[in-house]
Task: structure prediction
Amino acid sequence: MKRWLHVTVLALLALSLPAAVALAQGGEETEAYEGRFSFTYPSGWVLKEVTEDLVLLTQPGATITFYGHGYLQAALASLDFEDPPQLLAAFLGEEGLAPADPDPDPQAGALAAARLGPVDADRLGLALLFALHDGQWLVVTLLADADALQAVALDFAAIVSTIGPLASQAAEPCTISTDQVQAVRVRVGPGVNRTAITFLPANTPFAVLGQAQAADGSLWWKLDKEQVAPHTAAAELWVAQDDVTAQGDCDAVGQAATPPIRWASATRCRQSVVFPEDSGPKISVTLPRGIPPTPRAISKESEPVGMASTSRCWASPSRMMAPSP
Result:
């Protein structure tokens, strides 16, 4: 009889989400815990939040318990196990809920499952281990009286099928884009006081690596340098949220460390240059002292100019001898 009841619960967990929710009777209420996980439950159950990591749903003869990641960390010295079934078995042992039989094929998106019982005055049940989208763990257990287990099995199947977001249901990664050509400036850090080195290419989605707030309170996205501008010398690339369109699960983007602001400064330095000695023969040249004469223009050659002769000839006087008588 007990084995049959366990099989019934596991069979209900194999139902699809719409079918399981449709089987739940009465109205529905949704409970969410600061973006970590949420679930929907029928109105016939009473919600009791003990801590932010320990939530109970109760009705006569049955209890569903949600153990959050913080509760698991407090119960176990480490959450570093080789596989999910070992983690679930270790936690159940710490809680005094030793599993009667681990299930080799968990359903409803769970990574591990184990049948429980008998526990607390012959109660039976089931434990499921889920991996949430942010890397945290969640354990959900159902404990019910043997005569009430079959009656609450439908509700339990409906409730666990609405748990999310799970790692297997990870949302679309955050990307940003713009339809403006050469309009969105890409800077080396968050803030308009950072150097702009290029424009974001238009009509192309770019993966977001992180987010940060500038000094003026504006939100900035850190982009993949290899995707946006692989040849730039900048170490990081950032764009303002107000300048782009964001798509996907951008709320899950983590905070990124902001690079320091580097101010340019002038540097004065002195450098000496040493020339090697000449390898050839050394020639000494003595230059005349003083200021060299100013070169004069050289006249063109020309034919000599003819001149009339001015010489005078002096002739001796002619003498005549008288004839002799």
In short: Residues 76 and 90 are 8 Å apart (CA to CA).
